[in-house]
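hey m, so remember when u said the tokens were messed up on ur end? i reran from scratch. heres the input so u can diff it against urs
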Amino acid sequence: MRRAADLVPLLRERSLEIDAARRLPPDVLQAVVDSGLLRMRAPRQYGGYESDARTLVDVHAELARGNSSAAFCVSVWSLLIWMAGLWPDEVQDEVFATPDVRVSGTLAVGGSARRVDGGWVFNGTWKFNSGVLHSQWKVTAAMPEGPEAAAGPVTALVPVEALRIVDDWDTLGLPGSGSVTTVAEDVFVADRYVVPTGDLLRDQCKSKANYGKADYQVPMLVTSTAATGGQLVGAAKYAMEVFLDRLEGRPLTYTDYAAKREAPVTHLQVGEAQLLIEEAEARMHRFADLIADKSARAEEWTQDERVLSRVQLGRTAQLAKRAVDILASAGGGSSIFRDVPLPRIQRDVHAVTIHALTHPDTNIELYGRMLCGLEPNSAYL
């Protein structure tokens, strides 16, 4: 937490530059690397800390108090670095040979994989690869061609240098995350780097070194909830801080209130936003504690608990977005200038909230199906 807090002034100072560059500037990236935070979810045998879920939530929240694009990149790296620990040990030896390695990617199927002697040939286009411009490896999912398609998609760890980068990331939200498109053109990937996607979702860890560890018995998408949720809480906290800092000396224009801080409407706005932030943080902490408790008792995750994980993230996003929207709306006309962080925070939180795995509507619907006794309508649990 101290290391994350130390980065906040730099991230705030460079936020406009991060947005304009559409990626993390080299010195900002180096500061993140030097902090050691990229080792939070790396295996201990490679110098990692194997930090618990609550640490992950709180550290990512603290980074989002500086800049959401940077926090989003670190959250993706935290998850994908942990995910690399699911691969066979010989693959991990290669991946983690790079100090402070960064791993990017998604499980979205964006291409095809053709079986050949000794491996697979990948072709396709994958969008939304946050942090890939600064990563050495990419998690890449594809649908097999031919009879192998019956078994479902496969996922590979592919060197980023083997892929073509399409610099198409020009967005209103999370612009500094550099979530560009990657293209594979007849890229050969040896068998040892390729696993069935279903195995990753069913928690079939291929690593002998990591298989017995509690962290690697936690489902991947449960770990994803812990990695993603904190930044939403931190961004909302940052919005509150900015709003309160700007109150001093401001009137409520076109009213009789000489000071905005004295107006009851301001009290209602601040009170409601703060309660939403507290509820979002409490929800993430409670879920992180559930992860720790189940891990300590070596309990398997039921289908209902996996659905619960998805809805925790969706609800946290919903609460954080409501809080930020209230504060952005209450910020006044002067808050629309680029050097005021409120609209930037609002756009960034919106971008995280509409992510396919985060979207409140999708996740709450999934939760409602469970409550109604129906099977989930998603394999991503």
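this time it looks ok to me. Residues 214-371 form a domain with the Butyryl-CoA Dehydrogenase, subunit A; domain 3 fold (CATH 1.20.140.10). if urs says something different then somethings off w ur setup not the seq
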